[in-house]
């Protein structure tokens, strides 16, 4: 199975991650953009989380990535 995402899916995924970034999260008493908690790589599509990333945020980001991987796989 190919885990890479099409350029179109990457653009859509980034839009959704940017929307998620508008809601700050609190980590160790500091409010941060969610994107400060993870790294998004595109080939293959993957996410690397910081060790102090809140579990709820991890779940949201993983569900976004999974949604776009599934959509992309269905289009091929």
Notable traits:
76 residues, 4 strands, two-stranded antiparallel ribbon, alpha+beta, 46% helix
Mean pLDDT: 86
Largest sheet: 2 strands, antiparallel
Radius of gyration: 13 Å
DSSP helix fraction: 40-55%
Derived from helix and strand composition plus strand pairing, the structural class reads alpha+beta
Quickly count the domains: 1
Order of helix and strand elements from N to C terminus: HEEEEH
Order the strands across the largest sheet as they lie in space.
1-2
Q: Quaternary arrangement of the chains shown?
A: single chain
- Compute the number of helices: 2
Poorly predicted runs of 5 or more residues: none
- Proportion of residues in extended strands: 15-25%
Can you tell me the overall shape? elongated
Number of strands: 4
Give the CA-CA distance, first to last residue.
Answer: 11 Å
Fold and architecture overview:
This protein has 76 residues and is of the alpha+beta class. It has one domain. Helix content is 46%, strand content 21%. A two-stranded antiparallel ribbon has the order 1-2. A hairpin with a 2-residue loop joins strand 1 (25-27) and strand 2. The longest helix has 21 residues, at 55-75. It starts with 6 loop residues before the first helix and ends with a helix. 9% of the residues are buried.
